[in-house]
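Inverse folding, one chain.
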């Protein structure tokens, strides 16, 4: 019996190791079968660094608090952004995106701190992810240039008129986006062609968010609500994208001077509506937006902060010139804004008129150099400085390294 059992074992081992000739496995092996990736193998890293230099300033008192802290004062080299982006698909319907910035400034004397810009995940509701929810801290879908990455934008800073709605363009909330597959593919194609797109924020977007802007806690029970509708389409070789957007909520001021008369809760109505028109540069491009609304603004006549009307916009013209592998983009932008800036002390009152002339040079996909000259007239007033009109001009340079 033992000899018989040993013989069976030997035959079995021989069959498994050497033979398998006439045996049929339960599952036939497939030649070149794709190996399923582990979740961590779908992660990617990219980013960019921007170094600036402002010079030939005709007025050292001319500043732009929201756009670039290196305006005014001494000429200086300045690291505007150091962004490292981690992103990828955890599964076919779950996507994540985390972007810290290592050039944040907590004050004019304390530079280059790390701070979260984006930290969100997308949950697709269908296999094509045409319907999806975005949860976390991300850009609020209001304004094409607001959503446009600084890595893609041609002028060095965002316009005052729409950017005054959302400092750092972001907030914590939940956003719903929808776009059919063909439009999502068009958004991707625009990005691959380097046409300074805003990215894929859907054809329709609807969101609820805190309203106090990025990296700040909520200060009231009121939530802001935003909606956006845009529709890119092709006419021959040209691509046009019109859009409309609006939001409403109540904003709590962060900085109010002791001598200023303000609402006891420093809570003010904050609502805007904007229209967008984009003609993608093939080779001539137009990017224009205008918004109107109501918001807190310092009143110099009464030393109070009141809800007042605001309005303003911009128009950017550009032209793509290709010379071999190099790209030159001459551009000009004019902007105008009349209203308050709720993020600044006393909801500082602004009247801005500004003209910019410049050119972007891309000798390759990993390096860009922008040279821009700015002519600016800015009236910005609060309780500590109730009569402040500054005019002047300056030369601005930016070198950008892209790694992707």
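Residues assigned per position:
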């Amino acid at each position: 019996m033992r000899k018989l059992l040993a013989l069976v074992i030997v035959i079995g081992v021989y069959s498994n190791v050497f033979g398998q000739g006439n045996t049929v496995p339960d599952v036939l092996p497939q030649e070149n079968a794709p190996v399923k990736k582990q979740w961590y193998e779908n992660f990617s890293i990219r980013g960019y660094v921007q170094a600036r230099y402002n010079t030939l300033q005709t007025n050292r008192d001319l500043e732009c608090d929201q756009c670039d802290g290196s305006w005014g004062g001494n000429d200086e080299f300045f690291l505007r952004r150091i962004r490292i982006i981690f992103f990828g698909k955890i599964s076919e319907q779950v996507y994540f995106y985390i972007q810290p910035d290592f050039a944040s400034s907590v004050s004019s004397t304390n530079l280059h701190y790390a701070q979260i810009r984006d930290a969100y995940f997308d949950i697709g509701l269908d296999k094509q992810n045409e319907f999806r929810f975005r949860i976390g801290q991300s850009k609020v879908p209001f304004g094409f240039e607001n959503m446009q990455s600084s890595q893609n934008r041609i002028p060095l800073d965002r316009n005052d008129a729409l950017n005054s709605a959302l400092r750092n363009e972001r907030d914590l909330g939940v956003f719903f986006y929808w776009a059919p597959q063909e439009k999502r593919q068009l958004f991707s194609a625009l990005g691959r062609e380097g046409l300074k797109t805003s990215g894929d924020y859907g054809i329709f977007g609807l969101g609820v968010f805190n309203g106090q802007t990025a990296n700040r806690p909520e200060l009231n029970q009121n939530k802001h609500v935003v909606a956006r509708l845009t529709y890119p389409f092709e006419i021959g070789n040209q691509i046009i994208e019109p859009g409309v957007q609006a939001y409403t909520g109540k904003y709590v001021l962060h900085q109010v001077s002791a001598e200023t008369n303000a609402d006891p809760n420093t809570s003010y109505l904050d609502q805007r509506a904007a229209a967008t028109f984009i003609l993608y540069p093939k080779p001539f491009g137009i990017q224009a937006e205008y918004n109107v609304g109501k918001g807190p603004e310092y009143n110099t006549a009464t030393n109070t902060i009141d809800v007042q009307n605001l309005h303003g916009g911009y128009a950017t013209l550009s032209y793509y010139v290709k010379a071999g592998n190099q790209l030159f983009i001459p551009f000009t932008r004019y902007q105008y804004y009349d209203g308050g800036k709720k993020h600044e002390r006393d909801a500082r009152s602004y009247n801005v008129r500004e003209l910019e002339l410049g050119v972007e040079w891309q000798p390759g996909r990993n390096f860009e150099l922008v040279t821009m000259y700015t002519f600016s007239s800015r009236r910005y007033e609060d309780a500590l400085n109730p009569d402040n009109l500054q005019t002047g001009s300056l030369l601005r340079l930016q070198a950008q390294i892209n790694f992707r």
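The chain is about 10% helix and 50% strand. Residues 1-29 have pLDDT under 50 and may be disordered.
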